[in-house]
From TrEMBL:
Gene3D superfamilies: Tetracycline Repressor, domain 2 (1.10.357.10). The lineage of its organism: unclassified sequences, metagenomes, ecological metagenomes. This is HTH tetR-type domain-containing protein. Keywords: DNA-binding. InterPro entries: Homeodomain-like_sf, HTH-type_Tx_Regulator, HTH_TetR.
């Protein structure tokens, strides 16, 4: 899906709905977006049906193309919207956990994962997990460019406590963030496969512990550093 990846750079907004879409009454606009989220959550990207979205949203076929160029542009818009929600959640998590990045990711995992199972949970987060489940190559796309210059999530950097990490350069911090994002998004997808939040959480905690402790023994780490020195 190369068009999607191009439009998900997040550094520059490459596509947006038309002004016609933004000028719709809020109720009609939200009904369309609910229909779109449901369809992308139902099947992988390649199988998404614009006709199904049109029928569920109860709009004329021609109206879709007055709003979006194609389904790639629509998915890009939906994921950007999800990303903004996650930005806000991550800011809350980092403040709540006093800058501890791993605990902040666990906070987000708990919030999004519990919403997936709760009848009163956030419908958008449930759809996001389902979209990840159906499109495994998109797992960490929402997070990967999070702390690139010029992106809103660059604002997270000052909130992160670097003192807990062995490596704390900007480049290291970016890589740590991407690793945690990939692990977290995969763990959220696991929630939908097992339908067991508790088991998925235990597995996720084990992954975080492995990352936190490191995989090498202290002796091997010292030997490896000496050999590379």
């Amino acid at each position: 899906m190369p068009i999607i990846y191009d439009s998900l750079s997040y550094k520059v907004v490459t596509c947006l709905p038309t002004t016609t879409f933004f000028n719709l009454p809020e109720e009609k606009r939200e009904k369309f977006l609910r229909a779109a989220r449901a369809e992308f959550a139902r099947v992988p990207y390649a199988d998404v049906s614009i006709n199904r979205i049109i029928r569920a949203a109860e709009i004329p076929r021609g109206s879709f193309y007055m709003y979006f160029k194609d389904k790639s542009e629509l998915l890009s818009f939906l994921l950007r919207d999800h990303r903004r929600r996650i930005e806000d959640l991550m800011k809350t998590a980092l403040k709540e956990k006093r800058g501890n990045l791993m605990e902040a990711f666990l906070f987000c995992f708990d919030q999004i994962g519990q919403d997936y199972f709760s009848p009163r949970g956030d419908e958008e987060f449930r759809a996001l997990i389902a979209i990840f489940r159906n499109n495994t190559d998109l797992h960490s796309k929402i997070f990967e460019s999070s702390i690139e210059p010029g992106t809103p999530l660059e604002e997270l950097v000052p909130l992160i406590d670097r003192s807990v990490f062995k490596f704390c350069s900007d480049a290291d911090l970016k890589d740590i963030f991407i690793i945690l994002a990939g692990v977290t998004s995969s763990a959220l997808c696991n929630v939908t496969k097992t339908l067991n939040f508790s088991a998925a959480r235990v597995h996720y905690l084990n992954l975080l512990n492995i990352l936190g402790r490191g995989m090498y023994t202290p002796a091997y780490s010292t030997e490896k550093e000496s050999n590379h020195g």
